[in-house]
Amino acid sequence: MRDASPQTVYLKDYTPPEYLIETVELNFDLDEQLTIVRSSLSLQRNPQSKHQNLALSLMGEELQLISLAIDGVSLDEDEYTLDKESLLIHKVPQDRAFQLKIENSISPAANTALEGLYLSSQMLCTQCEAQGFRKITWFLDRPDVMSRYKVTLSAAKDKYPVLLSNGNKIAGGDIDQNRHWVTWEDPFAKPSYLFALVAGQLEAVSDEFVTHSGRRIELQIFVESHNVDKCAHAMQSLKNAMRWDEETYGLEYDLDLYMIVAVDHFNMGAMENKGLNIFNTKFVLARPDTATDSDYEYIEGVIGHEYFHNWTGNRITCRDWFQLSLKEGFTVFRDQQFSADRSSKAVKRIADVNALRTRQFAEDAGPLAHPVRPEAYIEINNFYTLTVYEKGAEVVRMLHTLLGPEGFRKGCDLYFARHDGQAVTCEDFVNALETANQADFSQFWLWYSQAGTPVLDVTEHYDAANQQLHLTIKQSCPATPGQAQKAPFHIPVKLGLLSDDGSAAPIWFNQQSSNEITLHVTAAEQTFSFANLAQAPVVSLLRGFSAPVILKMERSLEDLAFLLRHDSDTFNRWEAGQQLAIKVIFELIKNLQNQQALQLTPLLVDAWRNILQDKFSDLSYQAMLLSLPEESYLAGLMEVIDVDAIHEAREFVRISLAKQLQTEFQRLYTLYHRDESGNFQADAIGRRRLKNICLNYLISLETPENYELAERQFYSAGNMTDQMAALATIANSRHPAKARSLDSFYHQWRREALVIDKWFALQATSSMPNTFATVQSLMRHHAFDIKTPNRVRALIGAFSQSNPVNFHAKNGEGYAFLADQVLVLNDLNPQIASRMVTGLAQWRRYDEERQILMKQQLQRIVSYAHLSKDVYEIASKSLA
Ligand code: B3K
Ligand code: ZN
């Protein structure tokens, strides 16, 4: 067990800061072994503070103090107290501003947690959100303290020719032959979590953007020289994002310079530091032969996301970390809108919902469930969750639905006008939308405060005599940790009705007619009635997935097949196919569990044949319609998860469809298989997606011709999408050339770290037997490095989170392996370690034997002597 139980921080305990820091001057003598930090802070008492302390308490961790002075006078040792997490200066001036000077040292090379200042490959960089600044120097490291920064960096010229920080470069020069210096100034006040510095041997790829009002902005992407040829897409994405934000939200960039730096070692995707974004290389670098179509899309999305933070996060920031979704939920919503506008709206929405339902719904239903705005945490880094991000984005999307695009924009305008330069709360955001629209969101607010996924139970009754349809909707929400009872939510439910021939039936509601309406579900039970229906219509409910809820409605296979053919709502059309497949798969699972023979209903085959034969203008969408629900999504729908039955039933469906529709799959494969590498137009991406899903079905037949098809594609591919798609099908089959293909891929790409990550992940996620042995040997591969988060995620993360059959092996070897790795990572990088624990958190969902085995490993983790707060919080809450 840990030395002392870690403290919980509560939202209800928030108090304004006792002191404010107007300006910050930082001076770094950079060196990877020992960096000297000199900080000069102009402080004064905060008139809003309720406390009367004469003392000043600053946060700081893992720092060596060199000297301390107030207004030029050094402090004696009895004038302050130092402990592991803070510096307490017993008495500071109360009635005037004063200057505090701190000198301390830090060791970047020893920093394996990748928080604060650290070394990544040969470069020095920082990560300060949420509380990394306190690992650089003592500070009021909280987001409601906003200051203006001036930063001087000095370092060896040969190792660190490029020296960057936030804002604009205002001066620089040589110190002597070997060292040089640069000074940066950021005119915008910001919280410490947005501070950044970078030093290294970097090359800049430059461009410019002219804003709506005619200002010229210099754009620079900094990478190591061997990556200069992989920045074009990121640069284009940045320019697209800047234009989009001007057009959609009327928001213009504010500094004269926008810099992005790509680093190899990063705990997450990217970071929106003011004017100096730091990115995981994974979300910057792309060349047609090294990155897949999905990589290209993710890069555009993440570049957009960080750029959009400049307004939703930086100019207006969070008062405290409980408000994280204020910036993250809103910014995810904005990046989703941006990506939807840039590509296919239908496909983007489906992909987002798919991810939400598979992963966030599981979080909401498990021991780590928390509201979009949490009320307590032990380690804030554990709250960068799917709930805060993805469900937070759904909540903003519902506000957008309720207000309509114009009302939403009006509300946002007011939010920006009111709060620019401030650190605010989620209430402030909702309140601005309410005020601008004279709306009342008091019940809607529950989406921020109540955890858990609401369930809608819907029954329909058609009254032929009165030509009316009655829809009764009951809502409920399961208990979550600390919240036994839930009040009814305000849920926008979009509805359409279909006539016999598939056309829209007019919806007569409250004496008005339209083709689509949004119902306001606000009570525990409500009945909605629709008039003038000569025949019973087919109901299309929750169109566009208008609320993050679980919809339960008895539907026949025939109705689902009908909606799959005719629904004009692209989301619901896809959803009907998924529901159809789910029903079929669960029937098969029942048969398997009762040891009955399996048979595939012709209805599903016909439905899939129709999709294959219909004409689609959006081939990515057609590919999505053909995709079977993921095993992890199916698992979430099961009372007691049976990983083996899910896998077997789903495979049976895949193989049966391939057998019965082989000619169709082959026809489309041949039609769309062509070399158009380097073409990233939506239609070319669509052709690749459709062809590759056909290949995926075909290879399941395990015939020599289809094996050859995959191998031919693998060796001849001129782009990573096709090469990976072929290799993935090979790795996931008993293809005789599997080992040879994997070897050849490794040798081809051994110098491209991001491609080698794919190589690791591909093998770690194979559902073939023997995968565990492969994973163990990959752990010993010379290219594996436990200190590189991308590699850890590619091997340990992929195996434990995306390989249900093998990770959940009955003998528990997967669980013991994961716990071993969590403990190793705990000592190196607690943030990454705690992310890996997720693989065990859902233990209650499995059969009794597996429950015992998973629980044992969680207990083993919790009883480790030097457990970090991060891992302790996740493991202990999982056990609770
Ligand atoms: N704001 C950062 C996340 C920081 C995570 C700290 N553990 C990236 C983003 O959401 O844009
Ligand atoms: Zn973000």
TrEMBL record:
The gene is pepN. It comes from Methylomonas paludis. The lineage of its organism: Bacteria, Pseudomonadati, Pseudomonadota, Gammaproteobacteria, Methylococcales. It comes from the Bacteria. Residues 34-194 form the Aminopeptidase N-like N-terminal domain. Belongs to the peptidase M1 family. Its cofactor is Zn(2+). SUPFAM superfamilies: Leukotriene A4 hydrolase N-terminal domain, Metalloproteases ('zincins'), catalytic domain. Keywords: Aminopeptidase, Hydrolase, Metal-binding, Metalloprotease, Protease, Zinc. The keyword Transmembrane helix does not apply. InterPro entries: Aminopeptidase_N-like_N (IPR045357), Aminopeptidase_N-like_N_sf (IPR042097), PepN_Ig-like_sf (IPR038438), Peptidase_M1 (IPR001930), Peptidase_M1_dom (IPR014782), Peptidase_M1_pepN (IPR012779), Peptidase_M1_pepN_C (IPR024601), Peptidase_M1_pepN_C_sf (IPR037144). It is an enzyme of class 3 (hydrolase). This is Aminopeptidase N.
